[in-house]
Specification:
The protein has 85 residues and is mainly α. It contains 4 helices and no strands. The termini are far apart.
Length: 85
């Protein structure tokens, strides 16, 4: 299901990022970037689908509130990571 896809995509992404630590040349980095794009592609839509399915199963959940806090968390982590770099 969706959960397995999310786990697989995130695991693949982590492994590809880790492979950059031992990248022997620019060609390897280019291949890694292409693989990262393929691994990352299903993450956002699958996460949205998992959220919508959870809201359908549990009517007490508020999709709008979940999305707002997800967006706030993304913004905060992006700003924090940029500041750290």
């Amino acid at each position: 299901g969706i959960g397995r896809l999310l786990v697989a995509a995130n695991l693949a992404l982590a492994l590809i990022y880790a492979s950059l630590l031992v990248a022997p040349d620019v060609l390897w980095i280019a291949l890694a970037v292409a693989l990262m794009a393929a691994a990352q592609a299903p993450i956002v839509p699958s996460s949205d689908l998992a959220t919508v399915e959870a809201v359908r199963r549990f009517p007490g959940l508020d999709y709008g509130r979940i999305r707002v806090w997800g967006s706030i968390a993304f913004l905060a982590s992006s700003v924090g990571a940029g500041y750290a770099l």
